[in-house]
């Protein structure tokens, strides 16, 4: 998927798997070191916010993964506050914040050169 940045591709894969935020960071850093994870939160936070705004992602809080099954969807100020709370991005045994790729995210996995917009109808 060379039309996506490596960060976007990592986010898309993890969201498609319903991964927790901490798992996204572990995947990106290829590390179990939470200190390394903290260092990349600034890379993914704006991307997560942008994709939520564009309708590609939803974010859920739950007692266990996958958060989108039975969790509470975070929106608006609650989402903004959660993403800016460092512990949201950390591993916890008793809670998680996870990603869900919406059906709209399927477009991200398609090469833009191959996307076909529906034909326009002439309304003259």
Low-confidence stretches: none
Average pLDDT, all residues: 91
| Fraction in beta strands | 5-15%
For the secondary structure, the number of strands is 3
- Give the overall shape, derived from the CA principal axes: globular
- The chain-level structural class is alpha+beta
Q: How many H/I helical runs?
A: 4
Q: How much is the radius of gyration in Å? A: 16 Å
C-alpha end-to-end distance = 40 Å
Helix content: 25-40%
Q: Going across the major beta sheet, what is the strand order? A: 2-1-3
| SSE series | HHHEEHE
What does the largest sheet look like?
3 strands, antiparallel
Overview of this protein structure:
The chain has helices spanning 6-16, 21-29, 34-54, 76-83, and strands spanning 57-62, 72-74, 96-101. With 124 residues, the protein is of the alpha+beta class. A 3-stranded antiparallel β-sheet has the order 2-1-3. The protein has 4 helices and 3 strands. 40% of the residues lie in helices and 12% in strands. Helix 2 crosses helix 3 (34-54).
